[in-house]
Amino acid sequence: MLGQDYSRFLDLPSPPMRAVLDMVDKVAPLGSTIYIQGPSGSGKEIVARAIHAKSDRANGPFVAVNCGAIPRDLLESELFGHEKGAFTGALKDRVGLMELSGGGTLFLDEIGDMPLDMQVKLLRMLEERTFTRIGGSKPISVDVRFVCATHRDLTQLIAEQKFREDLYYRINVFPITLPPLKERLADIPDLVRFILERFEAQGFPKAPILTDGALEALKSYDWPGNVRELRNILERAGALFVGRAIDFATMAGLIRPGQPIDRAEEAEAIWDALAEFADDPIAERRGSASGDAPATPMGAGPGDDDAIRSTLVGSDGFNLKDYVSALEIGFIRVALEDADGSVSAAARRLGIQRTTLIEKMRKFGIGRPD
């Protein structure tokens, strides 16, 4: 069942993840070393576990070690073990992770952070499948499959003489590249279902209900923390909204807590856009901006005192809030129309964030053009 869960994590609609799953299916039955490259939080260990679960070693151990999280003085002992009396404090023999993973898979995460002296010893282990415990003299053979991963650019580390070139070519037998979540936003709905189901299976309260607006908010974010960050946000949502529906605004607040929209920045962007469209009057193209809102005369931008004065004089009961709202509506509609309905392209044209544009579309009831 666990292996099936890992496969579900990879069985996603985006083309990059389809390619990853295809590679996993092809290399899992083999005994070859796998090299997984991808940003932090993108799911490299999940890929490693899926490879293990789909291999003929599935009934053997899966041992994971983060090479960057263990102090360099302890890493050799952790990997290879030591004999009693090998150093101060070695009161008894210790079996290392290499031996513990015999018959299974050893996942070396963040291998790019491994010290150079350890890289030499790992290279020998990869080539001969033998090693010696610290303080020992007897070579130990072990049947283990290696899956290595890192978020770092190993070719750059080689150029900086921080990673051995021969080790790179030894681990880079079957490379698998995991793209960041921002490059595969189409995967978010499936990832959300998978993560929430796992939460409930682990005894969490009833999962929240994510509306289409909530999913849109998730798709509007850049995800610097990748899938790990998505999981954290969904865990936060599950704790705060047990069994309740979550809309766009609520999810946006969970994603960016305490970060209100910069209204001054938006206003400046609107006036900049106004100057850009000065030769293409909205009043002529759209007529009245929406409903009962006043029309949006052009030319009354900052610093254009005569146009502003003319607007004020010619308007009985002028309302600045309605005027600015109508101006926003007009620009949003035109930007969406010119962008063929692409919210991202329209937001770039208007000089605002995509999430800000979506919020405004919801506020003013503006849909994408047909």
Which terms summarize this structure?
370 residues; Rossmann fold; Helicase, Ruva Protein, domain 3; 3 domains; two-stranded antiparallel ribbon; 18 helices; 49% helix; 10% strand
Can you describe this structure?
The chain has three domains: 2-179, Rossmann fold; 182-255, Helicase, Ruva Protein, domain 3 (Orthogonal Bundle); 263-364, no CATH class. It is 49% helix and 10% strand. The protein has 18 helices and eleven strands. The chain has helices at residues 2-10, 15-27, 44-53, 72-80, 97-100, 116-128, 154-159, 165-171, 188-201, 212-219, 226-240, 248-255, 263-276, 282-286, 305-313, 320-338, 343-350, 354-364; strands spanning 34-37, 62-66, 81-82, 94-95, 105-109, 130-131, 140-141, 145-150, 174-177, 209-210, 245-246. A five-stranded parallel sheet has the order 2-5-8-1-9. Strand 6 (130-131) and strand 7 form a beta hairpin. Residues 259-266 and 272-299 have low confidence and may be disordered.
Topology:
Blueprint: H1 2-10, H2 15-27, E1 34-37, H3 44-53, E2 62-66, H4 72-80, E3 81-82, E4 94-95, H5 97-100, E5 105-109, H6 116-128, E6 130-131, E7 140-141, E8 145-150, H7 154-159, H8 165-171, E9 174-177, H9 188-201, E10 209-210, H10 212-219, H11 226-240, E11 245-246, H12 248-255, H13 263-276, H14 282-286, H15 305-313, H16 320-338, H17 343-350, H18 354-364
Parallel strand pairs: 1-8, 1-9, 2-5, 5-8, 10-11
Antiparallel strand pairs: 3-4, 6-7
